């Protein structure tokens, strides 16, 4: 294949393995969160220790493989599925149904949340929720014409 060829993933072409690998690299989330939200003061309060321990437990759980032998982690699978939800404008009900369906297809020891509620709870624990931004219809139509 020509090395200068551009993959057109939004037109149905499969992404390259390097794109898929980007979703699997999640260990640095702990460091990003720690740098952004946890304080590095000389005096460490007991509540900070507890918060850091709770967060470390969350990260450890999120970085476990989705199931034995799987290259995706629990968090990377959730991120990929949430991107799919956004890209295809899935409703909450449709996404909840998709999670139930996928949970049933995967091996019994899988760690994929089986409901939208469980997924949102995990994302809320990480403060990784999303904010839906409403745009003016006239602006959206104008931008489509550009």
Task: Summarize the structure in words.
The protein is an all-alpha fold and 146 residues long. It has one domain. About 3% of the residues have low confidence. It contains seven helices and no strands.
Topology:
Layout: H1 17-24, H2 29-37, H3 46-62, H4 74-87, H5 92-105, H6 116-125, H7 137-145
List keywords for this structure.
mainly alpha; 7 helices; 146 residues
| Number of strand segments | 0
Average pLDDT for all residues: 74
Name the helicity range. Answer: 55-70%
Which percent range describes the beta-strand content? Answer: under 5%
Taking all Cα atoms into account, the compactness measure Rg is 19 Å
Pick out the low-confidence regions.
22-26
Q: What is the global morphology?
A: globular
The domain count comes to 1
